[in-house]
Each structure stands twice: as structure tokens, then as C-alpha cells.
Amino acid sequence: MPSRKALIRRPSPRLPEGLVTHAERTSVDAELALVQWELYTETLREHGWETVETEPADDCPDGVFVEDTVVMFRNVALITRPGAESRRAETMTVEETLGRLGCSVNWVWQPGTLDGGDVLRIGDTLYVGRGGRTNAAGVQQLRAVFEPLGARVVAVPVSKVLHLKSAVTALPDGTVIGYEPLLDTPSLFPGLLPVPEASGAHVVLLGGGRLLMASSAPKTAELFTDLGYEPVPVDISEFEKLEGCVTCLSVRLRELHS
Description:
With 258 residues, the chain is an alpha/beta fold. It has helices spanning 30-46, 91-100, 136-146, 218-226, 237-240; strands spanning 5-8, 50-53, 70-73, 76-79, 104-107, 119-122, 125-130, 152-157, 168-170, 176-178, 193-194, 204-207, 210-214, 230-234, 251-253.
């Protein structure tokens, strides 16, 4: 029977040294971040997700943003080659963990770069942000791995945010939600539902209409409630200082079988 697993990695003590690209650097409290991460992972478990913790990467300040290390399509894992060279050491333990879980593992090779945060999956469509961290060769390699499996790959320009999923994610019915000022080409997403707050553009689908989202987007939470969904807010303020969001902190492995 399908098992709902979520891959996670605890934050490094060096988290305050994490990369900042589009935001001003502010002080990050590593101890508070750990508390927030523990509450985030507990929320996943409370809603029926078994958390699988990959090995810590204490020498990698950004290692907690585990989403960037892999793209999943069904039971196939594409281990990324992050656009920031300082993050490439993060992928090794993720590859080992997914191998133990029985995933079929593929890799992005030089000169390709690809961050998992640039890939938004809606059904069998993979929107891929082409921008600061993901290059054309990375998009081509993702196509080569997943199109034979039935995926439709759509490349999307990204210049105003770190990753595509910094600007858009999707509701359970497939409606794309986004914060329009951060989108290069909104017309690429038919039926886009604009949200009133930048951090409201990020949701993790917990199942049953429940949406894990940042507590920093209360107006967006009201919008989702009006649409019949159940927002599940979590405080991730320390990760938001590093351009992180709720999607960055886990990888849902929905197609695995136990």
C-alpha cells in the first residue's frame, strides 16, 4: 500500500551563514530555527506523513533546504547539481537515503545545474524555473529523465526570486497560486490565482484539503479558508530570512510503497 513519506534534514548549526540572493541579510537565530524545524516536522507527522531524516550536513549552512537536492517523479529520483557550488555537497547523503528507500536514482551532470526548488509538479506536468540556480542544460537533463516516464516539462523564466517555487505553488485541485509581483510571466500559468502576500504563494499539500503554509501570510490563509481548504500555519520566520519557505524544508515521497 502507498506510504506517505517526507524527506527532511535538520538544520546545520551554521544556518546563519546560509546564502541570501534577493533579500537583505538579517541575523538568523540557529536555536530558534531548530525549534521551528522540529515543530514543522511534527506537523507533518500529525497529518499522516512519516518523516525520513537524511544524514545531517552540519558543514552545509543551507542543508536544511532539502527540497533543492532532488526532484521526484513517481518512484524516480533525479539528484540535482545545485546552482550554488557551495551546496553541491548536500546531495550525497540524500542520494544514499533515497537508494535505501528503493528509489530509482538518476543524476544531473556538468554542465547542468538544477535546484529542486525550481521544479513545481502538478499532476504529470513539471514546471521548471530557468534562472539563477537552474540553467538550460539542467532543464534538458530533467526532460531526458522524466519525459520518457510521461512527464510534460514546461520551462519558465525566473529572475525576480530565488526559485520558481518562491513565487508559485499549487492547490490540491491543480490551481496555481502565486504572488504576481514576483512572477516573470504569469501568462504561463492559466487560471493563476493571485495571493495577497508573498509568503502565501507557498503551500505543502498535506492531504484532505489541508495546506501547510507559513504563519506570516494570514490574509492568504483567510482566502484559502473561503475556498474550502484548511490552512495549517507554521512559524518558519528564521528560514524566511534566508529566502526559505514551507516547501523547501521537505520532499514528499508520495509514490513509494511499503
